[in-house]
Structure formats: C-alpha cells, structure tokens
Amino acid sequence: MEEDSRLIIDSLKKAAIALENQDKQTAINTLSEITDEVAHFKKAAENSEIEARRMQEATTHQISELLLREGKAHADCEQAKRELDATYSEIASKKVSIQDLNLRLANSSRELERYYDELREHEARIADLNDTSAGSIILSILSLGIDRAVKAIAIEIDGVRDKIEIARRTIGAFTRELSILQSQLDGDNNRVNTLNTIVGQKEKQIKELDFLEFKLHNQEAIQRKRLAFFTEMNLFYIKLQDLLNNVNHRLDDIHDIVDELDNQTPTITSFDPSRHDLLSLNQALLLFGTALEQRTPLMSSEPVFDQNRWYYITSEWLGAERPLTVDSNGSVNGVKMGKKDGSPRQLWKVEVSGNGYFKLISQLPADKRSLDVTSNNGIDFTPNMGFIANRPGQIWKIEPEFEFFRLSTLWLGENRSLDIVNDGTNTKLTLADSGNYSGQHWKFIPA
What we know:
This protein is α+β, with helices and mostly antiparallel strands. Helix content is about 60%, strand content about 15%. It is built from eight helices and 14 strands. It has helices spanning about 1-20, 25-30, 35-130, 135-140, 145-245, 245-250, 255-260, 280-295; strands spanning about 270, 280, 310-315, 325, 335, 350-355, 355-360, 370-375, 380-385, 395-400, 405-410, 415-420, 430-435, 440-445. β4 and β5 form a beta hairpin. α3 (about 35-130) packs antiparallel against α5. The radius of gyration is 44 Å and the shape is elongated. The chain starts with a helix and ends with a strand.
C-alpha cells in the first residue's frame, strides 16, 4: 500500500508536468492509471473516519456518564460529611447532658444519704424514748413527756421518709434518662463509624473516578487526533476522486493538488499515539498507505516503537536530563533516575511481547536484562533489572497519556504505575497507586 501511495503521488506530479507541457492527453492517461488505487484509499479513509468518529462519540458519552457518577459520588460524600458533623454535634450535646445528669445524680445520691442519716437519727431518738430504764424515764418526763416526744419524732420521720421517696424517684428518673442518653450516644458512635466508612469509600471512589476521567479525556484526545487525521485523508481522496471523475473539466485542479503535496509544512496530526509531531500531507499519505499495507490497527491506542532503536526513558517531572538508568553503584540489578550521560546504562529497547505488552531491555549489562518488579512484603514494589524471562513483572503495558505514557505491569495491573519516589533526592523508583502525577508520566526519546 505504501507503494500505491507513492504511485498516486508520482502519477499526480507526472500529470502536472504533462499538463505544463501542454500534453493534456498524457496527463489524463496518467491519472486514469491510478483510478482503482484512489478508489481503494478513499474507501479506506472514509471507513476509518466513520469508525474514528463513532469511537470518539462513544468516549464522549462515557465521559458524560462518568461525570454524572462522579457528581453523585461527590454529593453522597458531602452529604455523609454533613451528617457526620451533625452527629458529632449531637454527641457533644449528649456528653454535656450526661455530664450534667451525672452531677445531678451524685447530688441526689448525697441528699438521699443525708436523709437516711436523718432517719437513723430520729429512729435512735425514738428508741431512746422507748427505753424503760429509770434514767431514761426521768429524762423524758423532764422534757416533753414520752408520748408527745414520740409523736413529734414520728411526724419528722414521716417527713424524712417522704423526702427519701422523692429522692429515690428522682435518682431513678435520672438513671433511666442517663441510660437512654448512653444508649443514644452508643448509637451515635456507631453512626459515626458507619459515616466515616461511607466517606472513606466515597473518597476512594472519587479518586478512582477522577483517574478514570483523566484516562478517558486522554483517550478522547487521541481519538480527536485520529479523527482529524482520517478526515484529512478522506478529504484529500474525495477531492482526488472528484478530479478523476471529472478529469476533462477539472484537469487544471491537478496543479493545486500537487502544490499541496509539495508543501512540506507539517499541519496534520498522526493517528499513531506514539507520535506527537505534525506531518506534511505527503508524509501523512505515505503513513496511511504504510499502515494499510502492514495491517496496522488504525484505531488502536497501542503505541508503535521502532524495534531497532534505543530510547532514553524520561519523566514529565524530572525532564529529559534525568533518564531511567541502570544503577551501577554496587549492583547491576538496580535502577534509578540518573543524570543524562549518554552511557549504555541509560539506553533502552522496547521489545514487543504481544497482546499490547512490551519488555524494556537495557543496553547494559551485557548479559541482557529486562526492567522487572519484585516485592519482599507484598506492599512495596521495587523496579530492578532481572534476567529476561516470561515473568509478569517484566511485561509492561505502555499507555499513551497526552504527550506522555503510563507504564504498568501485567503482574500488578493498571492500578499501579511506575513512579518516582518524592524523597528529596528523587532518584528511587516504585510501583505506586496510579494517578495523574507527573512522576508517572514517561516519554521515550530516540537516542
């Protein structure tokens, strides 16, 4: 197909030269020889544009639905936080009430004890008055008389007993109210735990949705570039086929088309997400033809790397002067972010592993090792250099994200990405929770 693309371009230029030489028939004959090729490319470009538009619209719809889910998650989280604040206020109020009740209960208990002391005192006096000893009788006669004294104390005893009953009822009421408040407080504390769990779940969901939204916007940007590319291809071949269909009346249009082909100004974006440069029309036509010839998946987001080239792997955060480097300080097994020096330990080959995955093989050490991931505890995951093997920690997924790529492994999945540890030295690497962080955005720069 690339040959067909070159044939079309060359034929157009030959026809333009023939027309300049006033050889109209040769120009027409030259153009007629590429009718089938133009029709084929036009159909391919048309189908590609339709499919690219469909995919972009589907992604836009996904983003719209995701934003609704994200909005609901935010609303649910805020509602849970408001309920949490209200519950904390209720807990504080109940604690004050419980403190007040405990104070009143203590006062009532002391008052009840005082009444019991008073009752025991009166009962002791009656016992003294009922004492039949000679001394007690004489003592009672000298005061009010036994009967009158006993009646007076009995009245006081009745009054004290009434006070005791009131105090006991008051203490009972306080105790019941205290029990109710304590039960409500336990319920509020349980609700706090439940609401904190909900807030945690919603915040985690929001974080996941934010990252998914970022990825979908990235996907939409790739599809937008892809749609622009295929639209340009389709428009070119529509124009060219229209010329061929009306060659006798539109032959002079050949000059405008050839002028476009000769213009080397890059204005067309590539459908290949691994390319971020613009293409001239001539380059775009050849790329399209090559893709059709090699049966390259035109709608795939999988990047295409030159298998015969070495690359520097750099991050958005640290920039081009701090590439991924095999650590030669004591062991060839380590990797770090080093200062660019052009040495073999900073050069990497991207080798296709199949199913959209790759191996990252360094030029140093000489025994050929691949970027690997290991863990001693199942919590911390450390990138290192391992002997090339069919290990899931050595099989990397490289996903385009705007002008950069995200690197994750078959072993840990897309939820963990190659990241730089932010510890001040910023040389160590890890596999961290995936997110929209500059330390997780990587670029492959041809050496």
